[in-house]
Amino acid sequence: MANNSNSALPTIVLVHGGFVDGSGWEDVYRILKKDGYRVSIVQNPTTSLADDVAVTKRVIAEQKGPVILVGHSYGGAVITEAALTPASQGLSTSPRLPLTGVSRSPR
Predict the structure, then answer these.
(1) Domains parsed from the chain with CATH numbers
(2) What is the DSSP annotation of 17-29?
């Protein structure tokens, strides 16, 4: 599906962990976009769990269609709370997701 903007695909919303920012998702973002997904990276303020959930819910609300939430480390707690949003169709937490040098197996 390289370079395919397929509107049937869900939007992937990526949520960073604590003590980092959304830039850690850059390589993952590029891979998903290349495969035709709509992708949003949440830039949480990390001031409190409630604030981070609120920002994440706002990003979810801006999306069209179903949403898959992916959170790294602390982001897993954020997406667990935010998953109560009706648009959320899936939830993935990845405590060991590599933030640099992302590789994927060939299809």
Answers:
(1) 11-93 (3.40.50.1820)
(2) -TTS-GGGGHHHH
